[in-house]
């Protein structure tokens, strides 16, 4: 819950006022910048939109953005597509940079495909999405895009706010927020606790999240202290199988893996000191992070248990110079991390063929630690040229080092050194080693002011990611080392943006070429050298035809294709020119809303186009259309009732469709579900900056 006392009033101002408030983004430069003049594709979900959406999963909010498709797994799990196909596998999460107030959620090399559940997006002040490779300020993982969740500052919270929400199938959520003056400065906190019994059998979860901040004067600057944390206790449901199984209500509710679970926690603290002077300003941030996770890998034969964790600290130093016609930002980023991973199996493998069981022994499979270090320097320069033209140029140099320590026997025996046969066991442990990756990422953009409300841009950019630690050190079969190079992506983008009182819009066409893609080949080895191409057209529009009315649209026409031919693990064949699997060519969202003095109604249509469910392009998912309804009523200055109905028409659909091991697999989508929230909030006693 965020700023409950003012959320509907803020929505009314945003939707009905003339002229609208200027939209500001901070993700590209870590400085507040007008979205109109940013030479790239960006979107911002504001506090009022997030409050009305009331997402029970981060996908419900982010899927309103052009170019984004978050597929919900079981519980709070997710897979991301951002100007990309939905990526899976050990390194898939490395294609996206997830930030919290400009600081990465995880250390470099230790990402997780589900890590968005670690951030309090439900109570954020805003979520910003940058599509395509990031600016020079964005480092490792900013290949396809960046998601920055901005937790609320004390001024963005009520003096005291409480909310209770109830939904079908045993869903409950309690939220609270408070802010006010203290002897140390102004402080605020937002927290929520959710209990969901689950609409599928034995697939509920308990979750808690916290965002807290303290803002005070410090010397001749401003100090902001933040504390953010999360805890998840989840019972996990697996795939349902069979062609079209998601259409069968009984199968959709079933859970073939009632023993599966995921427990995860995270804690992050940061301090930011900002100073402004006549030449520009100084921004210094320091942070510490810690997280841990334990989950049963029910999707693998033998169902081994994995435990992993990371502890890290880092600094970000940025200096800004401005002289009116030009702005220059230089900075240094540094990070140290210590992570571990353990995988073990309680008993012998009982599923699969005799050959498959023989190579999957009981006991420990992996037990290793990795210490990492990251150092980066960047420069970002903006200059107004003659007439309506402007130039933005940036360059980032980054080095990433890993020191790997195997705490078991090297090779692919069982934990006691007993071989599994002539080919060895499935799980292979490389010997201790160190690795270093040096990466360089430039960005160049040319802007044109076509009128007071119109901007055009042409941007060239490169993004990169080093191999993930699991790609390097969690090997299989007879692979004793993985000599992998970083992935990189080159992008060219042409865009237009318009911002006026009655309507705003943006349109962007892009072409991206990704090289040195890391994948698992037919021998089960982690190798690089793959290549993919990504081309598309994205649009966003907001129209206010009359006071109180609004219409919003966002969508993507894109094609994501392979540019290499190879046979993958499990025998799946990639052919150059084929579509990448789980990459719908069309994604569209349309929202219509009306707001009066006390009431608000919002209806949303979401379209996911058809896509291939396998890399060989032999099995497909037909796509789906969903309607969501949201309505709110203010009973007074402080009391509000909100009704949310997802999947209003009760369509049978799949959150994720996949074809593997000779058959279709689905994460079924939830049927129609209603959620009712009662909230109360009191304004702060004293206005705060």
Note the gap between the termini. Answer: 20 Å
The oligomeric state of the chains shown is: single chain
CATH topology: Maltoporin, Chain A
Number of domains: 1
Number of strands: 40
The biggest beta sheet reads: 22 strands, antiparallel, barrel
CATH superfamily: TonB-dependent receptor, beta-barrel domain
What is the average of the pLDDT values?
93
CATH architecture level-2 label: Beta Barrel
Describe the structure.
- There is one protein chain.
- This protein is mostly beta strands and 689 residues long.
- It has one domain: Maltoporin, Chain A, CATH 2.40.170.
- It has a 22-stranded antiparallel barrel. Strands 3-8-9-6-7 form a 5-stranded mixed sheet.
- It is 5% helix and 55% strand.
- The chain is built from 6 helices and 40 strands.
- Helix 1 crosses helix 2.
- A hairpin with a 5-residue loop joins strand 4 and strand 5 (78-82).
Topology:
Layout: H1 7-16, E1 24-25, E2 33-34, E3 42-46, H2 47-53, H3 59-62, E4 68-72, E5 78-82, E6 96-100, E7 103-104, E8 126-131, E9 145-150, E10 160-167, E11 171-182, E12 185-196, E13 205-218, E14 221-235, E15 240-241, H4 249-253, E16 261-277, E17 280-296, E18 305-322, E19 326-345, H5 354-358, E20 363-384, E21 389-406, E22 427-428, E23 433-451, E24 454-465, H6 469-473, E25 475-476, E26 487-499, E27 503-520, E28 526-543, E29 549-562, E30 566-567, E31 573-574, E32 586-595, E33 599-608, E34 611-612, E35 620-621, E36 624-634, E37 639-646, E38 654-660, E39 663-668, E40 673-682
Parallel strand pairs: 6-9
Antiparallel strand pairs: 1-2, 3-8, 4-5, 6-7, 8-9, 10-11, 10-40, 11-12, 12-13, 13-14, 14-16, 15-39, 16-17, 17-18, 18-19, 19-20, 20-21, 21-23, 22-25, 23-24, 24-26, 26-27, 27-28, 28-29, 29-32, 30-31, 32-33, 33-36, 34-35, 36-37, 37-40, 38-39
Helix pairs in contact: 1-2
């Amino acid at each position: 819950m965020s700023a409950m006392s003012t959320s509907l009033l803020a929505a009314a101002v945003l939707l009905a006022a003339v002229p609208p408030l200027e939209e500001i983004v901070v993700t590209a430069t870590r400085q507040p910048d007008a979205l109109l003049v940013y030479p790239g594709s960006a979107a911002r979900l504001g506090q009022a939109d997030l409050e009305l959406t009331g997402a029970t999963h981060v996908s419900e909010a982010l899927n309103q953005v052009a170019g984004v498709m978050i597929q919900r797994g079981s519980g709070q799990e997710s897979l991301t597509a951002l100007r990309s196909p939905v990526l899976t596998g050990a390194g898939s999460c490395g294609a996206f940079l997830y930030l919290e107030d400009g600081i990465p959620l995880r250390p470099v090399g230790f990402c997780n495909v589900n890590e968005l559940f670690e951030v309090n997006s439900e109570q954020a002040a805003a979520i910003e999405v940058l599509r395509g490779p990031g600016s020079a300020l964005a480092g490792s993982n900013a290949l396809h895009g960046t998601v920055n969740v901005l937790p609320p500052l004390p001024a963005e919270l009520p003096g005291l706010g409480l909310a209770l929400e109830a939904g079908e199938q045993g869903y409950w959520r309690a939220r609270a927020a408070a802010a006010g003056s203290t002897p140390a400065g102004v402080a605020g906190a937002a927290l929520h606790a959710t209990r969901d019994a689950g609409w599928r059998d034995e697939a509920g979860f308990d979750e808690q999240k916290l965002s807290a901040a303290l803002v005070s004067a410090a010397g001749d600057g401003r100090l902001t202290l933040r504390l953010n944390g999360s805890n998840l206790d989840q019972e996990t449901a697996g795939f349902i199988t069979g062609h079209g199984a998601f259409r069968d209500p009984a199968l959709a509710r079933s859970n073939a893996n009632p023993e599966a679970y995921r427990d995860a926690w995270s804690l992050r603290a940061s301090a930011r000191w900002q100073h402004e002077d006549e030449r520009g300003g100084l921004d210094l941030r320091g942070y510490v992070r810690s997280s841990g996770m334990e989950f049963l890998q029910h999707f693998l034969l033998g169902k081994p248990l994995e435990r992993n964790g990371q502890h890290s600290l880092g600094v970000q130093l940025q200096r800004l110079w401005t002289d009116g016609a030009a702005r220059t930002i230089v900075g240094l980023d540094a990070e140290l991390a210590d992570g571990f991973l353990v995988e073990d199996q309680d008993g012998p493998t009982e599923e699969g063929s005799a050959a498959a069981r023989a190579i999957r022994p009981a006991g420990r499979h992996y037990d290793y630690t990795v210490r990492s270090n990251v150092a980066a320097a960047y420069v970002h320069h903006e200059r107004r040229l003659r007439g309506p033209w402007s130039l933005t140029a940036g360059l980032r140099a980054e080095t990433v080092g890993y020191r790997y320590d195997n705490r078991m026997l090297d090779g692919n025996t069982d934990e006691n050194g007993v071989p599994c046969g002539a080919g060895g066991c499935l799980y292979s442990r490389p010997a201790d080693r160190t690795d270093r990756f040096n990466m360089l990422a430039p960005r160049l953009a040319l802007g044109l002011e076509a009128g007071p409300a119109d901007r055009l841009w042409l941007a060239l950019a490169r993004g990169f990611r080093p191999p993930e630690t699991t790609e390097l050190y969690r090997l299989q079969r007879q692979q004793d080392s993985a000599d992998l190079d970083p992935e990189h992506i080159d992008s060219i983008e042409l865009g237009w943006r318009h911002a006026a009182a009655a309507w705003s819009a943006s349109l962007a066409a892009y072409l991206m070429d990704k090289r040195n893609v890391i994948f698992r080949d037919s021998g089960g080895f982690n190798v690089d050298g793959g290549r993919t191409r990504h081309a598309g057209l994205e649009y966003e529009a907001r129209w206010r035809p009359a006071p109180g009315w609004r219409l919003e649209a966002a969508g993507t026409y894109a094609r994501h294709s392979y540019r290499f031919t190879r046979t993958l693990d499990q025998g799946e064949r990639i052919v150059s020119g084929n579509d990448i699997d789980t990459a719908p060519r069309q994604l569209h969202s349309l929202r219509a809303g009306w707001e009066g003095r006390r009431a608000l109604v919002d209806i949303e249509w979401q379209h996911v186009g058809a896509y291939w469910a396998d890399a060989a392009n032999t099995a497909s998912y037909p796509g789906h259309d969903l309607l969501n309804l949201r309505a709110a009523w203010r009973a007074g200055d402080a009391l509000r009732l909100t009704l949310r109905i997802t999947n209003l028409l009760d369509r049978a659909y799949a959150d994720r469709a996949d074809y593997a091991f000779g058959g279709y697999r689905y994460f079924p989508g939830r049927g129609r579900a209603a959620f009712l929230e009662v909230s109360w909030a009191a304004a702060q006693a004293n206005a705060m900056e």
